[in-house]
Specification:
268 residues; alpha/beta; four-stranded parallel sheet; 9 helices; 16 strands
Length: 268
């Protein structure tokens, strides 16, 4: 099936860049190709994960945001620049869309490092489904701590490792630790008394390298005051079947003011 892009402009991707291009074109119109019919405010995913914001508050329907654009739900699978045509795979089959101007705004995809056990045991944090899954996982670990046979198992269930100390990792850890702390008020006393262990791991020498050093140092100090175990200049390795992935002790260097002992086991 063939069709012409509305207004002659074809936009691949319905994220920030693609949706705003379509919005700015106004009455000229455009055709957006996207896997979803909404634009996600990815910077608000930590708040959606913790429940501070409802999931519906971090998305905007593309048809509402770009009323003068056509929307095709699908994935671009081939491009023929000489014919100015893109082939799109949809639920109904293949669709060929011709264009005058092409905007490629496909964004990024998560990259999983080749660490044994990481893909099987770790959680991604890229889209709304990831945020909800991560929230549910944290709450399930609280329930697992209730059922744990002893204190050592409870400590393990209440240990969480976040790999990546950029904006997403730091904010997700802060929001989810708040979620767990607030939820624990309704749990038995032995679970409340078990220390939570939140570990922030990054191969870089400091957290939040995107911001000025003084602000990054301030953020690290605030996290450590909350009991977060910051491990910079640290990579991951597989250690055993019962401990799928853990900080590599030989390459681990805590942030200067951290004095927390390393846990026996960690959960990715």
């Amino acid at each position: 099936m063939d069709r012409q892009a509305r207004g002659g402009t074809l936009i691949l991707g319905g994220g920030f860049a693609g949706s705003y291009v379509a919005k700015l074109l106004k009455k000229q119109g455009a055709t957006i190709v996207s896997l979803e019919n909404f634009m996600l405010f990815a910077s608000m995913l930590p708040e959606a994960a913790s429940g501070t914001l409802e999931p519906r508050h971090v998305v905007v329907p593309l048809r509402l945001m770009c009323p003068d654009a056509d929307l095709v739900l699908g994935r671009a699978v081939a491009h023929e620049p000489d014919r100015r045509r893109v082939q799109v795979e949809t639920d109904e089959g293949l669709l060929n869309i011709t264009y005058r101007d092409l905007v490629v705004a496909l964004g990024a995809i998560p990259r999983t490092f080749p660490i044994p056990g990481l893909a099987e045991y770790a959680f991604g944090f890229k889209d709304l489904a990831d945020a909800i899954a991560l929230r549910n996982h944290v709450l399930r670990r609280l329930e697992a701590a209730v059922a744990a046979p002893n204190d050592a198992h409870r400590r393990r269930e209440l240990t969480f490792v976040f790999v990546g100390a950029g904006y997403a990792g730091v904010e997700a850890l802060a929001e989810l630790s708040d979620l767990a702390r607030d939820a624990l008020r309704y749990y038995p006393a032995d679970v409340q008394a078990t220390p939570q262990h939140w570990v922030l791991v990054d191969a870089a020498p400091k957290i939040l390298p995107e911001i000025p050093p003084r602000l990054g140092e301030y953020a690290a100090e605030q996290l450590e005051r909350r009991g977060v175990d910051i491990r910079v200049s640290t990579t991951l390795r597989r250690s055993s079947d019962t401990q799928p992935c853990s900080p590599t002790a030989a390459e681990s260097r805590r942030a200067p003011s951290s004095g927390r002992p390393a846990p026996d086991r960690t959960r990715c």
